[in-house]
Amino acid sequence: MASNPPVGTGLPAGLVPPVKVALARAVTKMPPAGALPGTLLFEPKWDGYRAVGVRDDTGASLRSRQGKDLTRYFPELVAAIASAVPPGCVIDGEAVIWTQGRLDFSALQQRLGAGPKTLPGLVRETSASYAAFDVLAVAGHDARDLPLHQRRALLEELASAWKPPLSLSPTTTDSVVVARWFEELPSTGIEGLVIKRTDQPYAGGVRSWLKLKHRETVEVVCGAVIGPITQPSEVVAGLVLDGALRIVGRSAPLKTAAGRELARWLEPPRSGHPWPDTVKGTTLDQFNRDKEPVPLTLVEPVVVEVSADTAWSGRSFRHALRLVRARPELSPADIGLPDMLRPAIH
After folding, report:
1. Cross-strand bridge partners of residue 132
2. I need a labelling partner for 27 at 20 to 30 A (CA). Which of 87, 123, 327, 329 fits?
């Protein structure tokens, strides 16, 4: 009986899965003209799962940034890659799910937590899409040493006949378009921009790209803090969801002066508080910075302004908030879901 062909048949050496992906370094400002050498290419920063699509002589597969095999979780994407991408190709992109005109990260998480019985239903209810932004191999030839502008041309040629769920991530070098994207796309859940030089090779495992996240100032309810009430170290943020004040995230660690200023407006709860005095780490942060239960210092709810990005799971902020200031003149009862987190309407 013949043995199964090895995984990666027809691929260049060094590109048999798992593949090291190029990474991006976070920046807080748009690079000014001439700040970096060469021409800059701007792309949307998708809020999804980084996924390397591999098409070898035996079929197609998907791998995460960490090398995890995602193939069984996204059967519609794997089938599309097998059909529309020729053997010997490796593409880099993002698996995303759209719900009501907005990227839905929680739907992606449900896929990875689903068992064999529940996964087919999720695939039918919320089909995924794939936004490709780079190509590492074409027709069995390693393309990583080519400059980005040549890899992009190869990718566009590959994608010329693609249909959903496969798509080509848009790019631009036009500063006017860049400014419009940065302001308008976050309403759809796109986190910001990825910035690349068109002369760069593909450097797996290296932070050779830049990422600039769009942030907005929003109002949330501080219902607790971490640390003493007189010198809090983090804000525990809440919003009213399903008729109750729920924990939706935490702030980044506060500087001493900021904690002291916030403490001016904090006081113990006057009556029953809706939150417990100890929570799991995942209640504050879905990626669980704290393995052990986290004690909370409950406070009388007070409104605070925070700087937040668009990464919203549907129930919580996925990234740390940045405290801006307290807003004691506002009533916690009047604070609703920020507009930036509501589904986009088209």
Report:
1. 93, 168
2. 327
Question: Does the bond joining 18 to the residue before it have cis omega, within 30 degrees of 0?
Answer: yes
Domain residue ranges of the chain, discontinuous segments joined by +: 23-213, 215-337
CATH topology for the 215-337 domain: OB fold (Dihydrolipoamide Acetyltransferase, E2P) (2.40.50)
Q: What would the two tokens of residue 77 be?
A: 């994407």
Q: How confident is the model at residue 204 (pLDDT cuts 50, 70, 90)?
A: very high
Grade residue 60 by pLDDT with cuts at 50, 70 and 90. very high
**Cβ atoms within 10 Å of 202's Cβ, excluding its own:** 22
C-alpha distances in Å from residue 187, one per residue of 62, 109, 181, 214: 28, 21, 10, 10
Any idea which residue has 């403490």 for tokens? 263
| pLDDT value of residue 289 | 53
Give the single-character DSSP code of 145: T
Q: Which CATH architecture has domain 23-213?
A: 2-Layer Sandwich (3.30)
Residues near 4 by Cβ (< 8 Å), separated by ≥ 6? none
The residues, ordered by sequence, that sit 6+ positions from 309 with a Cβ below 8 Å of its Cβ are 191, 192, 213, 214, 215, 319
Q: Is 71 helix (H, G, I), strand (E, B) or coil?
A: helix
